[in-house]
Design goal:
elongated, alpha+beta, 36% helix, disordered C terminus, 12 strands, 276 residues, disordered N terminus, single chain, five-stranded antiparallel beta sheet, 9 helices
Length: 276
Amino acid sequence: MNRIHHCQDTARADDCASCVLEGSAACGSITALASIAGGVPVVCHVFAPGEALYRSGEPVDGLHFIVSGGVKLVRCDAAGHERIVHFAQDGGIVGFDAMSGDASPHSAIALDEVRTCRIPADKLARVLERRPALQMQVLRQMQRALTDAHGWIAELASGVLPARVRLARLLLRLHCGEGARIRRLQLTEIGSILGQTPETVCRTLKVFEQDGVLVPQGGRGLQRHYLADLEALQRIAHEGAEGVPPASCVPAGEDAELARPVRSRRGEAGLRRTAP
């Protein structure tokens, strides 16, 4: 933002009117609040990579509109293991539990630098009451999150689809903006989402890299990412979309998904040339 440059500050009407991010999916409704007498009850934040927007088991401080960046929602299972249960990025909303005042069942962690505009929890009811258009946007976002959660289970957590198909679908969900950049998670995080071992994830990623579908960027740390051939990822993600084989035809166990060795296109071409 051009006016608000601290890690946390309260927005005013002229801030929203002159914000360089005005017109984004997240800020469209925030700017609509600028006509409220006495200013906009919105707090603007910048979160560093790895920083928590809010934590599991604690009341959520408000409704966060994500202006830019990606957020992972992390929940602990009965054994105490952390598992990513959802993502949100540019134009999304997190912190819906602030509407009910309940503690959040998950933590929201910044994947990269994240900018949000937050309506504080103690102001939320009044703002929504006075802005029916904002109510509708929040309801649409909640419905979108619910639909996405159903897709998360069907497309990513299901063991019926091959490992490479589920991984391609996950990578497409991690796509950033208009370019070819894909946010890059740790192998253990991907394995937790897909129900695969880190070794299985690593093998499939290596095949994607050999085929030129993914090009690693950024070295180590939270800033690393992939540059992706998005058309190739889309083709892989839709393999078998016309019909899923019956369960009896699918090898048991997640490592068995790679029972038929996955070869790169170059390797398959070489086999065709040498075949009798």
